[in-house]
């Protein structure tokens, strides 16, 4: 086995990328991001590559997110470090390259896919998920916001579903992810290799390459089961269509039943500032281009990397000390001012723009 954190191989006309940190659930390190950005532009022009396949090593995860522990360590040990600036910039450049990729970008998701992993899969042309699939945008849990293009795809989901997923970190299994339009099809874990071989054997040439990939995937697709979201959507729409986090909390408080009480209890554990900036992110990103969304999210990311932000407390409590008891600042939503929120959307010195 190679020790590389990410593997690249051209095989049967497919550019195959394997995220290869199985012990860290394939969490995306800065090195992995840089290597992707080195290889994938070349594959886009290389006639020997007809499509890209993205997979995760090991049997648990596709990708658990970004390597936020690395950002935490730099913040703690090296106040002048540049990782906090460069990580998000280069990650978002890769997300945008995938969104605009000229060839099929096919993610075979056989396990956990959260945060940064969603940014590598959701913006591609195709994604399939196995029975081990588990999706979430869990960033409000650690004092961040649903980035990597969350502002783009979450605002395009039905009703208030995107707001619900963004604020609560709610997890979806494969049936719900298909229903939501976050993945295209269910392919059983046991058939993922076979699907890849069939894509390798297929003629994917021409302008209808994406349609040809659809047809191959359809041969391996199975029923993903019954989604739970259809019956929850009335409650989600009623409680999560609101202008402010305080209003959402009030609606949940007033809403009868166990579901609303559970959502409220979940929200009350999360970073109030994260929830407020996330709601503002979704408002500002609705109907914007992918590139505009990445500019907005980059500004937000840089504000979140400043000393004293909830992000460091969240990573500390959830991933480093694992005490599960983050001390958020402010501790509740009534402490979050308009100015604190607006601060996350101001231009930064090293702004990220695309032409
Ligand atoms: C929220 C997140 C992340 C998270 C947990 C959250 C995240 C992330 C990881 C993670 C998980 C396992 C690892 C690792 C990182 O956890 O982005 O290195 O081994 O990468 O509540 O956003």
Cα-based radius of gyration, to the nearest Å? 20 Å
Helix content: 40-55%
| Helix-strand pattern | EEHEEHHEEHEEHHHEHHHHHHHHH
Shape: globular
Secondary-structure topology with pairs:
Elements lengths: L5 E6 L2 E6 L10 H16 L5 E6 L4 E3 L4 H10 L5 H17 L5 E5 L2 E3 L1 H6 L4 E4 L4 E3 L13 H4 L7 H8 L5 H7 L4 E2 L5 H10 L7 H12 L8 H12 L4 H10 L3 H10 L4 H14 L4 H15 L5 H11 L17 H5 L13
Parallel strand pairs: 2-3, 3-5, 4-6, 5-7, 6-8, 7-9
Antiparallel strand pairs: 1-2
Helix pairs in contact: 1-3, 2-15, 3-14, 6-13, 8-9, 13-14
Bound molecules: 3,5,7,3',4'-pentahydroxyflavone (QUE).
3,5,7,3',4'-pentahydroxyflavone binds next to α2 and α15.
Task: Give a brief outline of the structure.
By secondary structure, the protein is α/β, with parallel strands linked by helices.
